[in-house]
């Protein structure tokens, strides 16, 4: 006992009454307000669940680098978009679709994505994909994947169903995500 106290010169609190105002010896339980800043970098701003290294929340789909309320587009919406795109191409006699697409590429959209309030976002810059990235994604990357899919039972077209960020292979080539932006929060400010 005596030996221990000799090795620790900074232990006057152990003796009652030596200090008029002893510091509190207990650590108060963290209040929610105090805990929030610590957890802010590791929880989803939309649902509050813990998030990992993925760019999207694995619980609610919120894209973590975009404003709240912009999740990944659902699998159903994506496939619905493919169907609608095909209908639009036919209905506009192909050429109309191209004109329309070349106008909305700058907003990270295709004609069907515009009608369904979906957008393509470029992950490294955390913003909507630009015109040339859309051109690369829609025509070059998709052509390469179509060739690949033609001798792999079309399996690549279903890639988004098991991908953690619902990316198609052409999304991986273009480093993009497809988001649902129902309130057009990512629309360019006019
Ligand atoms: Zn979430």
Explain how this protein is built.
With 190 residues, this protein is mostly helical. It folds into two domains: 39-71; 72-179, no CATH class. Helices cover 38% and strands 6% of the residues. Helix 3 (75-91) packs across helix 4 (95-104). The longest helix has 20 residues, at 131-150. The protein is elongated and about 90 Å long. 24% of the residues are buried. The model is unreliable at 34-40 (pLDDT under 50).
Termini separation comes to 76 Å
What's the β-strand tally? Answer: 3
Instruction: Report the total helices.
Output: 7
Shape summary = elongated
| Portion in helices | 25-40%
Q: Beta-strand percentage? A: 5-15%
Bound molecules: zinc ion
Radius of gyration, Cα only, in angstroms?
27 Å
Largest sheet properties: 3 strands, antiparallel
State the low-pLDDT regions, or none: 34-40
Number of domains: 2
H/E order of the elements?
HHHHHEEHHE
Which structural class matches the secondary elements? mainly alpha
Strand order across the biggest sheet? 2-1-3
The overall average pLDDT, rounded, is 87
Helices and strands in order:
Blueprint: H1 2-7, H2 32-39, H3 75-91, H4 95-104, H5 111-115, E1 118-122, E2 127-128, H6 131-150, H7 169-174, E3 176-180
Helix pairs in contact: 3-4
The protein binds zinc ion (ZN).
Zinc ion is lined by residues 44, 46-47, 49, 57, 59-60, 62.
């Amino acid at each position: 006992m005596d030996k221990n106290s000799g090795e620790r010169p900074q232990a006057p609190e152990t003796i009652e009454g030596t200090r008029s105002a002893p510091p509190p010896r207990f650590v108060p339980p963290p209040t929610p307000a105090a805990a929030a800043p610590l957890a802010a970098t590791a929880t989803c701003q939309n649902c509050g669940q813990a998030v990992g290294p993925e760019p999207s929340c694995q619980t609610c789909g919120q894209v973590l680098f975009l404003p709240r309320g912009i999740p990944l587009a659902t699998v159903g919406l994506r496939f619905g978009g493919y169907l609608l795109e095909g209908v639009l191409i036919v209905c506009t006699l192909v050429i109309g679709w191209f004109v329309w697409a070349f106008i909305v590429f700058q907003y990270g959209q295709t004609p069907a994505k515009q009608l369904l309030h979906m957008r393509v976002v470029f992950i490294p810059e955390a913003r909507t994909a630009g015109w040339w990235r859309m051109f690369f994604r829609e025509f070059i990357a998709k052509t390469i994947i179509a060739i690949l899919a033609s001798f792999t039972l079309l399996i690549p077209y279903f890639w988004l169903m098991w991908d953690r960020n619902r990316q198609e292979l052409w999304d991986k080539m273009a480093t993009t995500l497809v988001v649902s932006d129902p309130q057009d929060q990512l629309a360019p400010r006019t």
